[in-house]
Structure formats: structure tokens, C-alpha cells
Amino acid sequence: MPEVNVEINGRKYRMACEEGQQKHLIGLADRFNKQVESLKGAVGEIGDNRLTVMAGIAVVDELAEAERKIKALEKEVLILQRAGQEVAAEIEALEERFAGKLVEAAVALDGIANVLDEAAPLPHS
């Protein structure tokens, strides 16, 4: 199992990860370290453990907000899917009505053609 070195709050940690996940783990550690450094700048030196816990809670808060947004977007997607299905059903109904009107028009035109043929037959060669 591959290992990577990451740095959090000035301390180096060796961590194992799955093959091919090294860059991802380093990126996550960098992102978490930025959260720790940001908090350190905002609250000053409060102890490594407390600072790490606060950064972890802040990250989980961001995750919870992202999950809330995802749920809201999933609801919007469902609403849009239903609306799309309703529109598709309306289009299908309109197409059926249009096809019915075309059949009615064809029958009417055929009737008119028959009347015209009876009234004024075409000369035969």
C-alpha cells in the first residue's frame, strides 16, 4: 500500500492510501491544512488538539452545507423531470389530436374530390 507524507499545522504525517490515490490524499491534506492555518490566523494559538478539532468541525460544517445544497438540487431535478414528463405527455396528446385532424381533413378532401368527379368527370382519352 503506497504511503505519502502530508503536513498539517507544521507537523508531518505519513499516511497510507490505496494505489493511485496519492495525489488525492495530498490534495485533501493541503485543503485541511489551509483550514487549520485559517483558523490559527483567526483565533491565534489555542493548542494543536483544539485547533485540529475546530478545523475538523469547520470542514464537517462545509460538508453538511454541501449535502443540504445537493438535496435541494436533487429536489429541483425531480421537479424538472416531472415537468419534462408532463410536457412530453402534452406534446404526445397534441400530436395525436393533430393526426386525428389530418385524417378528418383527408376524409373531407376525398369527399370533395368525389363530388367534383361526379359533377364534372374528367375527359377520358
UniProtKB/TrEMBL annotation:
Instruction: Locate the coiled-coil region(s) and give their ranges.
Output: 56-83
* One CC-aspect GO term: cell division site
**Keywords carried by this UniProt record:** Cell cycle, Cell division, Coiled coil, Cytoplasm, Septation
Q: By its UniProt entry, which InterPro entries does this protein fall under?
A: Cell_div_ZapA-like, Cell_div_ZapA-like_sf, Cell_div_ZapA_N
Its subcellular locations are:
Cytoplasm
Kindly report the protein's main subcellular placement as a broad class: cytoplasm
Q: Which Pfam families match?
A: ZapA
What GO biological process terms does the UniProt entry carry, in alphabetical order?
Answer: division septum assembly; FtsZ-dependent cytokinesis; septin ring assembly
Function recorded in the entry: Activator of cell division through the inhibition of FtsZ GTPase activity, therefore promoting FtsZ assembly into bundles of protofilaments necessary for the formation of the division Z ring. It is recruited early at mid-cell but it is not essential for cell division.
Under the subunit heading, UniProt states: Homodimer. Interacts with FtsZ.
The family database entries (PANTHER family) matched by this protein are listed as: CELL DIVISION PROTEIN ZAPA
In Swiss-Prot or TrEMBL terms, this protein is called Cell division protein ZapA
Q: Which organism is it from?
A: Devosia epidermidihirudinis
